Amino acid sequence: MFLNVVHILRNVLDDLEIFRHSSLICWQHLTIPALSEHLGKSILYLQQTPPIPNIILGLGVKVFGWPHGTTYFLIFFQTLLSIGTTLLLFNLLARVTGNKYFSCIVSLVFVLSTDLLVMEYNSCGQAFYENLAMFLLLLTVYYYGKVLHTGKPIYSVALGLTTGAMALTRASFSYFFVVPAFLLLPLVRAAQPKKSLHNIIIYFVCLFGTQFAWCAKNYAVYGTLNIAASSWAGHNFLSGIMSIGKGDLLKRSILAEEGKYPKWFIEMVRIKGLQSWPYTLDSKVEIYLPSQVQRDDKRIQVILQNSNRPQNSVAERVISDLYMRACVRFYLKNPRIAAAKFLASYKLFWQPMRNYSNKLVNPLFTYPNLVNNSFNLNQIIRASLSEGFCKNQFVYSTLVSEVLIGGRSACFFTVPALPVLMLGANIIAVHIIAPIILICSAISVLRGRKALFGREYFYLLGTLIYCILVMNLPDHGENMRFRLSVEPLIWLFSIFSSVILFQSGLSLSRKLQSYLKPLLRT
After folding, report:
1. Consecutive H or E run containing 408
2. Integer Cα distance of 291 and 281 in angstroms
């Protein structure tokens, strides 16, 4: 797969040299001059996004050169992450199902899927942070299982470091540490409570050495204490509200509560309106900012020799924090709007992931096959089996005025239809099979019996619930892209749920047979 993609990209890069246009680099990263010439200082003053992707990109630029060397490095890095994720998926599936052949087939379908390819390679490797989060999330499942079954402290170390690394890779996982911590607590009541307590302490120590250390750095540099690894939360929530057409209502809500916000912020909102993507500083709002904020930004730009992004400025963080306060107050006053927005985003979350490419974010572009209702399984299956669904996914090959058109069909070296069929199976497993299992388990526990599942399944469930909430509460529009980091876990959860339901059905069938045999003999 990697060789196929490299061949295509070599043609693209040789013909167009698109990566010589530095504007095509994702704005989630710091600028190339900042990373290549001031990497250490840039990371010190980084606050807009988590540091690990910027560190990796910066090292790639320094070691392999910009743009071609970095491009091939990032694509190769993404390929290794996909392979590592696939191996983990195979290992976990084999443990759940007990069937290595079935696990191998499912894992191959995942790694050769068109969704994975167009999400990865149409970005020329820039979206590697999604693949890295995907790998780390599945790794936490693996290490949690090891802690659960062995109790060895080394696995608690690995779980803590991996959880911290997730938060420093993808800001959505800034609060994920609560999930492993909550599910490690019951182990204290196990046969060896002291050993279990030691594992929990080790887990938190590793978190303090990674994620919380980064938070302490931000506090030392900027004077703000926040667990989140990104300063964009307020902008994300604002973007979601504006995307569903409620921006004017939010603006009126802010202006109606002037006393809740600084005067300069109210003046900015009244005159300039709400500033969603692109960022506020692109709209020349500096005149409204407090003088101290302007001085701080000028000081940082001097230190970084004018290579810092406006999106990484103190001004953006201050404005984003105020937007966050406003959006929370708006949702609390309008719970119906909050619920409607979440449901709309949740439907996008279950779109085929390749449909994200119609967003045309920098060099990402394919012809989309949108499914109007992600929960219309009949439509999904018909679309996945149609010839057009397989053929209309492209790896780009033409750049016209920074709009990429045309391309080579991705179906020549992927499995286009099966992942979408798996999407339908996942929707059924998550929304029908899993609730049945939970209800039956609750009934079983109330009757004094064991639950149908153990802590590993509960860990998968807790992780999935966390991701669904965090990835659909703020933004609206790119939700199918967010699913990439949790996609292999969804596959694992769906198959695990099906196995539990099948085993429970077999157990119930045996009990019925043993009950009916004496009656049939009489």
Report:
1. strand 408-409
2. 15
